[in-house]
UniProtKB/TrEMBL annotation:
It catalyses: alpha-D-glucose 6-phosphate = beta-D-glucose 6-phosphate. Belongs to the glucose-6-phosphate 1-epimerase family. This is Putative glucose-6-phosphate 1-epimerase. Coiled coil: none annotated. InterPro entries: Aldose_1/G6P_1-epimerase, G6P_1-epimerase, Gal_mutarotase_sf_dom, GH-type_carb-bd. Keywords: Isomerase. CDD domains: D-hex-6-P-epi_like. PANTHER family: APOSPORY-ASSOCIATED PROTEIN C-RELATED (PTHR11122), GLUCOSE-6-PHOSPHATE 1-EPIMERASE (PTHR11122:SF13). Its EC number is 5.1.3.15. It comes from Pseudaquabacterium inlustre. It is an enzyme of class 5 (isomerase).
Length: 278
């Protein structure tokens, strides 16, 4: 079943697979705000104070960061894709899965701040205990352009202080909280005591997030970096769209292409995917 709904005052599509697995995606930002695996509970965190609207980024779910990650360039933080209206292209049920496709095409608004022609497409597939999210970008212009991107996934947990992230041993990471210092991960799993902001590089194998809500298997293709982020109590208190204590109830484990930007020739296409299995 695929039906139109309203979430955060915005038009959205609810996808329900034959086995009951479901997800909800806003047309605003192509922002996935809910994922409930079959027979399970909500696995994405959405702030109860989240807002959505033109130019407004939604706190939680899976924001699309494109064509710039964070403040690493001249564009607004995390680019513009997450704050613009996308178009619903199609929805279908195939092979026991519910599938949704949305797209964003360059226009006067995007060209005013990023002078390139492109088409971005977000595809989500939900079935059983799995959610797959793919971002594809096509250069529809006459000159090459470069970009960075990420799927900024907020994963719901019971308590950050008790959660553990497996699979990072031996990786190099950039510690954003320490002026981008490059460090080597010497132990695994990692736990959390508050704020963390790391970019793990050249991640070639899946990660796994363990909490009282159960284990969550996280894999990726075409997105070689894994960003691990939580604002901690002090920065959470300064965010107007996040309750002060809710930093304990999520961890962002984001798949991205950040360290080396994608250079896309005219007519070329790039795609990156992040998948979750509960």
């Amino acid at each position: 079943m695929i039906e139109a709904v309203t979430v955060l005052g915005q038009p959205a599509m609810r996808l329900v697979a034959p086995d009951g697995a479901q997800a909800i995606v806003l047309l605003h930002g192509a922002h996935i705000v809910s994922w409930i695996p079959a027979g399970d509970d909500e696995r994405l965190y959405l702030s109860p104070s989240a807002l959505a609207g033109p130019g407004q980024a939604v706190r939680g779910g899976i924001p699309v960061c494109f064509p710039q990650f964070a403040g690493r360039g001249p564009l607004p933080k995390h680019g513009f894709a997450r704050t613009l209206a996308w178009e619903w292209v199609e929805g279908a049920e195939r092979g026991g899965a519910a599938i949704g496709v949305l797209n964003l095409v360059s226009n006067e608004t995007t060209r005013a701040i990023w002078p390139h022609d492109f088409e971005a497409e977000l595809t989500l597939v939900v079935s059983g205990r799995q959610l797959d999210v793919e971002l594809a970008v096509t250069n529809t212009g006459h000159a090459p352009f470069e970009f960075t991107a990420a799927l900024h996934s907020y994963l719901r947990i019971d308590d950050l202080l008790k959660a553990r992230l497996h699979g990072v041993y031996g990786l190099t990471y950039e510690d954003t909280l320490n002026d981008g210092e490059r460090c080597h991960q010497e132990f695994d799993p990692i736990g959390f005591v508050g704020e963390i902001d790391r970019i793990y590089c050249d991640v070639k194998h899946p990660l796994e997030l363990a909490s009282a809500l159960g284990r969550l298997h996280i894999d990726h293709e075409g997105l070689p970096e894994a960003v691990v982020w939580n604002p901690g109590p002090d920065k959470a208190a300064a965010l107007p769209d996040l309750p002060d204590e809710d930093w304990r109830h999520f961890l962002c484990v984001e798949a991205g292409v950040i360290d080396t930007p994608v250079i896309l020739a005219p007519g070329a296409e790039w795609a990156g995917r992040q998948g979750f299995a509960a």
